[in-house]
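## Example record

The block below lists the input lines for one assembly entry, exactly as stored, with component labels intact.
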Amino acid sequence: MLKLESVDVAYGHVQALTGVSIEVRDGELVTLLGANGAGKSSALMTVSGIVRPKAGALSYDGVDLSKTSPFDIVKLGVIHCPEGRRIFGGLTVQENLRMGAMRRADAPAVRRDMEWVYSLFPVLGQRRRQAGSTLSGGEQQMLAISRALMAEPRLLMLDEPSLGLAPLVVKAIFQVIRELHRRGVTILLVEQNVRQALAVADRGYVLVTGKIALEGTGADLRAHPELEQAYLSTAKAHP
Amino acid sequence: MSGGELLLQQLINAVSVGSLYALMAIGLAMVFGILRLINFAHGDLIMVGSYVALLLMMAGLPFLMAAAAGTAASTIAGLVLERVAYRPLRGAHEIAMLLTSFSVTIFLENLAIILFRPTSRPFAAPALLRGVIEMGQLRVASLDLIAIAIAAVLLLGLTLFVKRTTIGIAMRAASQDLLAARLMGINVNAVIATAFAIGSLLAGVVGLLWSARVGKIDPLMGFNPVLKAFVASVIGGLGSLPGAVIGAYVLGGLEILLQGLLPSALTPYRDAFVFAILIALLLFRPNGILGSTEREKI
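Predicted structure tokens for the full assembly:
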């Protein structure tokens, strides 16, 4: 279980997160919503150990993540698929996947998982020897998710997987997210695509300028009358 | 000597010089690719290895053993350099890293002046490296052929390393996106140390070939090779390994070509002409021959 308790994060004098408490229980799909700059990515970067909290507690399965290196956090099975895909453009699709499986020693299992992600995203299988930079935006996102899956995540953190993609591709990506959830992968999903995210999520949190403004089950948040206008539109970021 | 033979002779010359530049430039490019650090102290690793080899030869060790020890000394020096001087600066500004590399250079060169005295010492290569092979009118220094062969073997090995091994692929991944590499659980410190180790080992090999070619060594001997390697990697595209190699051979070729074409009154200014041509090239391809010009996909 992932637990953030009253976490503060700041970049120099810029406060990114203030007193943020989030819980993701095993097997859950939790979504973290918010407008641009609300602090969603900062929250994920803090969990992966790239950014360190100024205050508060942060743990996964009882391990204090604020004192664990990013390298060891990956070893715990906490895998972060970053915003903007960030695939390795000069590496082939297959090499990208191999990098995802970096810390795994069991070669037959890695090969099995590679075939599995090729079955999730057949287009990647067709392009396994192609450089990542030659893929379309949607295919790059599929590759980014697949690369994260190759790390055998126990907790998978997806940062805006639908950003800038065509509706059909978004649909395919969310289908896979649903499938992963069904298979029992714990997922923390950061999204701006509120409708889609809430449709798949068990629970959700809404971040507004670095603070949790709302939380509830997916159904509760979906039913909330002013969710989008009051909390998520960039124009009215301040409630 | 016929025109064809002259051409072949100069070609061997150019490839041999280019090979030395290439082995140097790779070390710079590997480190720059990951850290955005131009490690000017790379040249001093040549000096370290050459002195260790020379002192061991003077102590009576056979050349090959002394050469192996010299190469090992360069490699260890490179690893110590990374650990002591550069790792504490992880995440620091590029200018801070560049200044550190200058400081390290000044430190190492002055240390060498104190330890080995400032004047040059003769570096007597064994007969095998000093031979001249005559084929008809053609006279080829065996050192040139050996340098070409060694470079070919090392470049092939390096290609297999970065294409096939997990740590080699991780090195390319880290040079493309360091943050993504960390998020995937790539041990960035290990990758960087490996890059330094390989680059320093190559520098050690270059040092021995360079010293054998020049016939003497001195504490400041690393300056010229590192400058040429830097220019080579800029021509090829900073940070690109194939670019560094291509740039090195272009540079070697230009030097030999101008050496042959310039009237003898102008040959002392050969490098000025070489650099003028390179400046012209960079005006048309500011990112070098293989430097990427493409923007990130949105």
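The longest helix of chain B spans residues 3-35. Chain B touches chain A at residues 166, 169-170, 172-173, 176-177, 179-188, 294, 297-298 (CB under 8 Å).
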